[in-house]
Amino acid sequence: MVGVKMSVNDDIIFAFDIEIFSRSYKLSGVIAWCKEADSGIYEYGLQFQLNENERA
């Protein structure tokens, strides 16, 4: 949840560096949906962009 309203826009690509079970991943994605959870607090859904090698 975030206190900033961002628009659903395929032109803005977000990059994430995450670690799961001691393995690092670099993911990119776009905002797929936005919902106001509370007054001024927003939830976002992301659509990640994976190439064929990353899908396995």
TrEMBL record:
This is Tfp pilus assembly protein PilZ.
